[in-house]
Amino acid sequence: MAKKIIFSDKAPAALGPYSQAVLVHNTLYVSGQIALAEAASGDLRAEATQVMENLGYILSEAGMSYANIVKATIFLKNMDDFALINEVYGAYFEQAPPARETVQVAKLPKDVNVEISVIAVND
């Protein structure tokens, strides 16, 4: 199996022993992205936007864009934030959004409010 580690210096470095993303053939597996500074500010819209921007930076390093995303997982600290997260997330997909699930979790790394991971495919 030929795998290539993808790293963008525009997105946060991994907080542990994992890569920002791994490319295998034409499929990119992007680790969950968070937004530390925005989470500390308490502005959930800014936090979600930064998470999506971080994903974009990593996708770009692999020669992909949001249009290449086929699957996303959103982890929320509070499901009451679902509508706001949906609004921010949806703005990144003009048409044919990817498959997705959203789950509420007890706690996220660095006590952020949202984390998003994706799988993207380049035809």
UniProtKB/TrEMBL annotation:
InterPro entries in UniProt: RidA, RutC-like_sf, YjgF/YER057c/UK114
Segment forming the signal sequence: none
Segments crossing the lipid bilayer: none
**CDD domains cross-referenced by the UniProt entry:** YjgF_YER057c_UK114_family
**Gene Ontology terms, cellular component aspect?**
cytosol
Q: Which GO terms describe its molecular function?
A: deaminase activity
A Pfam cross-reference name: Ribonuc_L-PSP
PANTHER family per the UniProt record, alphabetical? 2-IMINOBUTANOATE/2-IMINOPROPANOATE DEAMINASE RIDA (PTHR11803), PROTEIN HMF1-RELATED (PTHR11803:SF58)
Family statement drawn from the similarity comment of this UniProt entry: Belongs to the RutC family.
Q: What is this protein called?
A: RidA family protein
- Organism encoding this protein: Arundinibacter roseus
